[in-house]
């Protein structure tokens, strides 16, 4: 067994709590403890509960509620479905490496999150985690080579792109004459004149600042905005194009929205 195969062998194992199938929101109880909220299934004894351990996971044994905790209002059913439990969602399982593209995976960043994983070879493909399941916190290893296997849902494919510019945490794809796809915190298509250069830098907290430079324009992909190159380039200073966003935010040159933007995959859809 390869090192990667060994690492994923135990991930996504279905050990679903049988209580989830019939659990109702009114069976839950919440306690306020300082700034924390303790959530769980109400126990059989007063001030005992089965603590919430993670999405669709509750403790097998009921435990006493801390003495200083006070019972409070249970969150709304919608909140519970999104963050606590949902019987219609199943634990995600990692894809087999051979079922994903063989090229080097590119981790797409959105501040401190990884919304997408992209692959570039003769074609370009963008994947995300399936929306009809949930990722068990125990399965998240922090190792990208393993974690990227949970990104098994295709959101965009481009056959034989004219060119791809992989950046630090992002990707720009030249699809055809005048049509580009940007992969960052969201995936969207737009129209532009030919791109001469692509620059990308990471800000504090993992924010991705991607810039496409054309003969006449600077395309600020994080902001979906354009400014004239002649209004930006003279003010770059020693930082070069890495300082373009500083010029955009500080000097505030006239800007216009990108043309014909089509959202392919958003942050929360």
Show unreliable segments. none
Provide the structure class: mainly beta
Number of strands: 22
Q: Assign a percent range to the helix content.
A: 10-25%
Tell me the radius of gyration: 23 Å
Q: What is the approximate shape?
A: elongated
Written description of the protein model:
With 269 residues, this protein is mainly beta. The protein folds into 2 domains: 24-86, no CATH class; 97-265, no CATH class. The chain contains 5 helices and 22 strands. The chain has helices spanning 3-8, 77-83, 144-147, 229-232, 244-250, and strands at 28-33, 36-42, 48-54, 57-58, 63-64, 70-72, 90-91, 105-110, 113-120, 124-128, 133-134, 153-158, 163-167, 170-176, 179-183, 187-191, 195-202, 208-214, 217-220, 225-228, 255-257, 259-265. The strands form 5 sheets. Strands 1, 2, 3, 4, 5 and 6 form a 6-stranded antiparallel β-sheet that branches. Strand 17 (195-202) and strand 18 form a beta hairpin. The model has no long low-confidence stretch (mean pLDDT 93).
Tags for this model:
mainly beta, 2 domains, 22 strands
Could you write a compact summary of the structure shown?
The chain is mainly beta and 269 residues long.
């Amino acid at each position: 067994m390869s090192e990667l195969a060994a690492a994923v062998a135990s991930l996504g194992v279905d050990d679903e709590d049988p209580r989830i199938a019939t659990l109702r929101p009114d069976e839950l109880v919440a306690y306020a403890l300082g700034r924390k909220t303790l959530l769980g299934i109400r126990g059989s004894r007063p001030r005992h509960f089965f603590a919430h351990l993670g999405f669709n996971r509750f403790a097998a044994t009921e435990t006493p509620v801390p003495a200083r905790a006070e019972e409070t209002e249970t969150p709304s059913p919608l909140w519970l479905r999104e963050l606590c439990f949902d019987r219609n969602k199943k634990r995600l399982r990692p894809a087999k490496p051979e079922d994903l593209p063989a090229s080097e995976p590119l981790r797409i960043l959105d501040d401190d999150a990884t919304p997408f994983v992209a692959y570039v070879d003769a074609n370009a493909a963008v994947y995300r985690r399936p929306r009809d399941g949930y990722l068990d916190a125990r399965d998240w290893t922090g190792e990208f080579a393993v974690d990227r296997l949970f990104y098994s849902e295709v959101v965009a494919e481009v056959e034989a792109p004219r060119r791809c510019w992989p950046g630090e945490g992002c990707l720009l794809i030249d699809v055809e004459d005048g049509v580009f796809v940007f992969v960052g915190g969201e995936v969207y298509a737009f129209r532009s004149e030919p791109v001469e250069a692509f620059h990308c830098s990471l800000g504090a907290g993992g924010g991705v600042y991607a810039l496409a430079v054309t003969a006449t324009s600077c395309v600020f992909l994080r902001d979906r905005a354009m400014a004239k190159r002649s209004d930006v380039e003279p003010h770059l200073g020693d930082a070069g194009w890495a300082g373009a966003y500083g010029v955009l935010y500080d000097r505030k040159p006239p800007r216009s929205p990108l043309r014909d933007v089509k959202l392919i995959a958003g942050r929360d859809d």
